[in-house]
Design goal:
Layout lengths: L1 H30 L6 H20 L1 H9 L5 H18 L3 H24 L2 H22 L5 H9 L5 H24 L14 H15 L6 E5 L5 E5 L2 E6 L6 H18 L16 H15 L3 H14 L8 H8 L16 H16 L8 H13 L25 H20 L3 H6 L4 H10 L9 H9 L6 H14 L3
Parallel strand pairs: 1-3
Antiparallel strand pairs: 2-3
Helix pairs in contact: 1-2, 1-3, 5-6, 6-7, 8-20, 9-10, 9-12, 10-11, 11-16, 12-13, 14-15, 14-16, 16-20
Bound molecules: zinc ion.
Zinc ion binds next to helix 10 and helix 11.
Length: 492
Amino acid sequence: MGGSLESLKARLADVNALRVASTVLDWDQQAFMPAGAANARAQHLGNLQRMAHEMFTDDATLKALEGAVAESDDDVALLRVVKRDLDLSTKIPSALVAEKGHLAGIAHEEWVHARATNDFDSFAPTLERMFEIARQEAEYFGYTDDIYDALLDQYEEGATAAEVRTMFDSIRGPQVELVKAIQASAPVDDSALYGEWSQSAQAELTREMVASLGFDFNRGRQDTAPHPFCTNFSVNDVRLTTRYKDYLPSSIMGSMHEAGHGLYEQNSPEKWDLTFLAGGVSLGLHESQSRLWENIVGRSEEFWGVWFPKLKSAFPCLAVESASEFYRLVNKVKPSLIRVEADELTYNLHVLIRFEIESAILKGELKVKDLPDAWNAKYEEYLGVTPESNSVGCLQDVHWSQGSIGYFPTYTMGNLLSYQIWNSLSNDIANPNELIARGEFGPILVWLRTKIYARGRYMTPKQLVLDVTGKPMAADDYLNGLGAKYRALYNL
Ligand code: ZN
């Protein structure tokens, strides 16, 4: 019977190779590809992705899986993960997969155009169809309580809409209240952080910073791309990208964020490299690591105690005189319209709005044509700001045009989990902030590696959270941590 397990592993290695080839082409497209190559690249990516999908969902994979007998605990975990992935890939009829792929191509073009021209109506019929496809997908995946569960599970195994609602119910009140209290206090002027900053100085500084966290440039790179992201081709080849804007912390905090994703991938065990057990266990857990390094480490006063002198020597014109002043400015809270530019505190309110809206559309409680009005009303209610156009309102995010419906809550799960995991780390490592103050990240990285990164997809996300923190995901650590930080910052 070992023959079946061996043939399954050989098949999965081929699937992995095809997927990685697509990933390299996609990375190249975003970082280096000349614009004129777009058509050929789309063709190559389409073919490779189809080949990978066909090879994975072929009857031979299922036969090998059914015949495979685990010879170790690792095998047991591998078979579980492959079964789940195969279920997700085969439950949807290929005609619907093809229709969604085709529609996503059209929807992306229409979305880009609609956002540029502030023309929601031209995009609405396609978006309506995309939600209809999501509804059909959910029916094929199956669910018991809530249609949203089926879609969310693709990104966060086992998570449910009811849990997401509980999560938002716990944070909505305290967060809206804290934001209001901050808005009523003296405004922070962070104009000193805007200017024309040398890109090479930013590249050099962020590279040094990311390396100091433990990101291994012998097994990774950092390049420039219009949107910051992290991708990987193996545990020994992890790619980060960053971008340079007139807001100086943009490249710095963006690099810390992507490095958090990168550390997770680089520290996945070598023995699982190129297999389905390697890498991050879910989107929520992955985001918990990018947020932990970006916000809890990178936006701490201790961190800037070490890095502010280096920042000043890289940017002598920067009109900020002390680390504590920089710390105050880089943590400025200001309700705004754009999710990706939101501060740590208001970020979840942006996610909450998207969750409520996509959930209402899926259930037929909201029509796509009424989306802009619903969006604007919620921004007014939760953030006290009103989009002056749909371009900076309901058209700002790419997700729905790609059919990624049920994805947004994983951002907020990441925020909550980052604090919950940090508290657990603080029980084992006394005063981790003293380590940060000395620029010593080694013990923090080792703890995270042992508890999370080295476990790849061995457990389910829920099992991992329970194992690492001793409890299921909850909002209290997050609310306490954030509350203490911002009350001190704003003298509330
Ligand atoms: Zn991220």
